[in-house]
Design brief:
Length: 493
């Protein structure tokens, strides 16, 4: 006898619990990634690296290289080149493991890859102080090793969502997952400032100790809560398990249990894949401009120092976090109600996110002295609206190539990581004097790249599983996608 059940609710559910655990995994991953950027401020004695404490006047504000009211004295006498080497070393490791991370997750399971990469990163984070006190070169090698491990983390998470995420819920589930990265940025800024002043072992080492321990504890929770596939999860309800399996199989074909070989020729010649890669690169270029170059713009042109703004500096990250989740909920609602197709939903998300971000960046470039509040508003709006890209190319990886989503995303991450290397270099070249006119050129260039990425994605993207990414069903037939609102039949004895 057959019984018919409706879709199990999302909250509470095992799949939503998994997204929350991944949220905290992204949170601690980004804390381990960015902690050095904040810790180095109190690690290095800037009064030794700069000849004197030269005051620079911007908009009538005097800025000095160090805070005269701070009691923190840097432990290391590094010059700017050494500091730059330590900070950039993470990304040289990060760019080297993206593709292999997705491949390993597909073959051995995302649970193991995520566990090993975050645990390894946490253990290496714990020995950052020892490495720093040994040699700056030892520290750079260690940071590159952390980058190499973390390069595999996000492709592995994406691989897990290819088997855990029902198509109509992917925007929400991936949005919740990756929003943790922004909260990690929000937390690590004030935490690092506090521990620099009041932490143990000289202050700055406690930043790495506390974040490293957090990472180890998270891994214990991850191993207990997660499972590579719904069918292997010991605590999931039968209805939810059947719903996920049926939905995912309907979208990409029946899982034969065999790991398919990666169709590299098909991937590299797919317009839909290159559309995601173009949007990914443009989005990351904009992100690096917001996170790396804009603070320099605020300092050069307006005399603003984000570290001196206190809680205000966290507002853009909080707005970004809210927009990522709101965009996911909105995108899934638009699709489920039939307002827009999957493809047009992804197009709309990318156009709003990237073109909107470019607009606010350009506007911020024309703010002048005395318009501090306005420029913070523009930056906050630009960062917030860019969060809608998570309902665009990020989830589209899972829609066009579910079995290979980790590998395809990892390749995209490798390409887009180049933006993190190229963007700061281009910015430095275009702003030799730090004038407002020079910065306007940088921001217009960024807006052009963002717009180009959104347009390329909109023209060549797809909202369906590509033929080469479909797994064969029993008797060689492909399974038709499950339509929204369609009920799932569960066979019972």
């Amino acid at each position: 006898m057959d019984t018919v059940t409706t879709k199990p609710r999302l909250v509470p559910s095992t799949r939503f619990a998994l997204s929350l655990v991944m949220f905290f995994g992204c949170l601690v991953t980004y804390m381990m990634r960015t902690n050095m950027s904040f810790a180095v401020v109190c690690m290095v004695s800037e009064n030794k690296t700069d000849s004197g404490a030269e005051k620079v006047s911007r908009c009538g504000k005097e800025m000095t290289p160090i805070d005269s009211n701070s009691s923190v004295i840097g432990e290391f006498d590094w010059d700017k080149q050494t500091t730059g080497m330590v900070l950039s070393s993470f990304f040289y490791g990060y760019i080297g493991s993206q593709i292999i991370g997705g491949h390993l997750a597909s073959r051995y399971g995302g649970k193991r890859v995520v566990f090993v990469t975050i645990l390894g990163s946490a253990l290496l984070t714990l020995i950052n102080p020892v490495a720093a006190r040994t040699s700056e070169y030892v520290l750079a090698i260690l940071r590159a090793s952390i980058g190499f491990l973390q390069g595999a983390t996000f492709p592995a998470m994406h691989t897990m969502w290819s088997v855990w995420g029902p198509p109509q819920e992917l925007s929400v589930l991936t949005g919740v997952t990756y929003a943790g990265a922004q909260i990690g940025n929000v937390i690590v800024l004030p935490l690092s400032g506090f521990l620099c002043q009041y932490g143990f072992d000289g202050g700055w080492p406690s930043i790495f100790y506390i974040i490293g321990v957090f990472g180890v504890l998270w891994c214990a929770v991850w191993w207990y809560v997660s499972s590579d596939k719904p069918v292997n999860h010991p605590r999931i309800s039968p209805d939810e398990k059947q719903y996920i399996i049926t939905s995912v199989e309907a979208s990409m074909g029946k899982d034969t249990g065999k790991v398919p070989s990666t169709p590299w020729v098909k991937i590299l010649t797919s317009k839909a894949v290159w559309a995601c890669w173009a949007g990914h690169f443009a989005g990351d270029w904009g992100a690096y401009t917001m996170l790396v170059s804009l603070p320099s713009f605020l300092k050069d042109v307006l005399g603003l120092n984000l570290s001196s703004l206190g809680a205000v500096a966290s507002i853009p990250y909080i707005a970004y976090f809210l927009a990522i989740n709101a965009g996911g909920v909105l995108a899934d609602a638009i699709r489920s109600k039939g307002i827009l197709s999957t493809l047009n939903t992804r197009r709309a998300a990318m156009l709003v996110a990237l073109v909107g971000q470019g607009l606010f960046l350009v506007l911020s470039g024309y703010c002048g002295c005395g318009q501090d509040v306005l420029v913070i508003i523009f930056i906050t709006c630009g960062m917030a609206i860019s969060g809608f890209q998570y309902a665009g190319f990020v989830v589209n990886y899972l829609e066009i190539a579910p079995p290979f989503s980790g590998t395809v995303m990892g390749t995209g991450n490798t390409i887009s990581a180049l933006a993190g290397i190229i963007s700061p270099a281009v910015t430095s070249y275009l702003t030799p004097n730090g004038t407002q006119e020079e910065w306007q050129v940088v921001l217009w260039l960024t807006a052009a790249i963002l717009t180009a990425g959104a347009l390329i994605f909109s023209v060549f993207a797809s909202g369906e599983v590509q033929p080469w990414a479909k797994l064969s069903a029993e008797e060689g037939h492909e399974m038709a996608p499950l339509r929204e609102g369609e009920k799932i039949e569960l066979a019972t004895a």
